[in-house]
Amino acid sequence: MNTTIDLEALLRRLHLPTVRRLYSELAQRAEKEEMGYRDYLAILVAEEVAHRSQTRIQRAVRRAKFPFLKTIEEFDFTFQNSVRLSLLGSYLGPELVTEGRGVIFTGPTGTGKTSLSIAIAYRAIQNGFEALFTTAAELIDELQQATHQGRLRQGLTKFTHPHLLVVDEVGYLVHPVDAANVLFQVVNERYLKRRPMIFTTNKPVEAWGKVLHDPDLAEAILDRALERGRVIEMRGPSYRTRHLPSKTRVPTPQGDRTPLGGIPVGPAAAGPRPGPGERGSSPSPALLEGARISGKAAPEYLELADASLLQLLSAPLEPLSQGPGEMMSVSGMGGLSPTSALIVGFILGACTFAASRAISKAVRARQPAG
Questions:
Q1: Sign of dihedral through CA atoms 238, 114, 73, 190?
Q2: Do 182 and 140 meet the contact criterion of CB atoms below 8 Å apart?
Q3: Full-prediction pTM beyond 0.70?
Q4: What is the pLDDT confidence band of residue 347, given thresholds at 50, 70 and 90?
Q5: Burial of 228 (0-12, 13-18, 19+ CB in 10 A)
Q6: What are the structural domain ranges in the chain?
Q7: Is it true that domain 85-233 has CATH number 1.20.210.10?
């Protein structure tokens, strides 16, 4: 007795869409290649399992609410060399979830903290677990609203149910005063269920008490998060600005490098260094002016021109006082007694005599020998 079996209907009833899509095409291939029944069935089942796994991952990624997708294979460990792939071995396997491990990534912005946490969470999804990504500001704000509406327990379920929770940007924004209260409830419940957490922050963990406005609760949060976890510090330049030219830092000059007479000194004066096989540029006249054969630097004072020296020598000196015992006015100062005027006149006279000797020596030095 021949009976016709509606294979399409049976496969649809068993929810085997991939087998239903491939069995006919694979049957023709099996006849050509003389494939056995077992191999034919194994290929169909493997295709169905692979399709279901891919579909599950896609759904889990959508539920995880990643801001972007980054895999561990795509992470640039050559640029961010403060962390090694071997250091993350235990966080890329099923033991991350089964053993309830955790990690806190700290460091400045752009060092890959968020990308690495997403890559670890995506690997957990590939290992068959659920993950959720959120920022600290979103988590605290949502639980605050749930508290005000009297549904805190329902609000906590969203953050305590997934196998892995990623809390991004702790301390980036200013958190409200009760931030530690709501965050502690999430951390404590996940700790009791041995469910791992990943935190990223630009603040050192020692500053979380100030960030969360409660040092005691911050210490309790870190105590639970790190019992089966660790802190990984990420250093280096920002990956986002890697396309920009590196900023050249001029080393702090040693000694007195004050420019003399407007002539540049230091690296700026030397100009670009010649390359291999090239000759350096000749010094500019401005740099050679005032130089000495001995190689000593030019004097730190500016010499007066010849005309200025002659004018200074030929100019008569103004009297310091009108006469003995008379009041004297110096630069607009008030009247002085005769004794004070005598002392000031003596000091100014001595200064004038010293200045005259210095000017005379400068004039003689400029005259040619012989």
A1: positive
A2: yes
A3: no
A4: low
A5: middle
A6: 7-56, 85-233, 305-313+335-370
A7: no
